[in-house]
Fold this protein.
Amino acid sequence: MIRFIRRTALILMLACALWPAGPSQATAKYDSHEGDFTLRDFHFQSGETLASLRLHYTTLGRPARDASGRVTNAVLILHGTGGDGHQFLRPQFAGVLFLPGGLLDPQHYFIVLPDGIGHGKSSKPSDGMHAGFPHYDYADMVAAQYALVTQGLRINHLRLVMGTSMGCMHSFMWGENYPAFMDALMPLACLPVQIAGRNRLWRAMIIDAIKNDPAWAGGEYKSPPRAALRATADLLLIAGSAPLQMQKTLPTPDAADKYLEEAQTHEAVALDANDILYAVEASRDYDPSGTLGKIEAPVMWVNSADDFINPPELGIAQQEAGNLKHGRFVLIPASDATHGHGTHTWASVWQSYLAELLNTSANR
């Protein structure tokens, strides 16, 4: 979910999924390309307009078309809050799925890894507009992704839409907004309901910590608001906590205290207050629950039982899965192999379900 802790991958499962990276050895041999697509006069749901919206992306492989010109092998993979498309080039993801003979081998699939609005190398507040940057929400992010896919990359059909955390939520929105555009959906680590309860609380705490820090200066700070960023790092660490992994890796008070100190120090440098504020606020009006029946594609929805952000005891996933026409919900039990919320990026844990989905949706 969040591109903040770049070390100790087995400790913070969020970080395991979101480290910035270049192509791994698994992908280096295939056609790889990075580029920018610019949308002119992009209109946001807030009523604001940006004259030039830049969307950065990475692709692996090449598109294939059938006799009618329909793209048959395009796979769109969507990242989480604070992340970017490069997170999927880490070994725990690319080293499992993008290997020769892997389920998403770039010799056979055209992989599209976009950076969402406000993230990575796409347009974001820290580029210079600061608090003057338009206030985007998930609908804006999905609309921009669709424009990138259809206008920028000339893709007229997707074999699969997959997303992690925020990208998981975007996957549900893709299925509702463009029901005939994809053969299959695989949302990983989210719930298709409004952000409420504890999930809303920790997000609101981050927002308040930033806005209430005098050093934030209404978003026009000359130096980072350290107190706000420390509080943000603490909350992100807890939201991304993996109990079994942390207990194993931090078995003593001294080990835990040392890790916390190092993480806080690192976060104070890695985070930009405006970027994370905008990214967290973007979930404010998310709620696809009322229109899940619009989704036509088969859905393989996977959460893990040790997910702090989407706790299974709420029973929400089991209830909402019944509103999907062709959907299956899978809850992966907590184990030494899971990484809390960040299990979404450890492909070895859930790749069997992806294989099932690709098989059952092959003839759509």
User: Anything to note?
Assistant: DSSP finds twelve helices and eight strands in the chain. The mean pLDDT is 91. The longest strand covers residues 32-43.
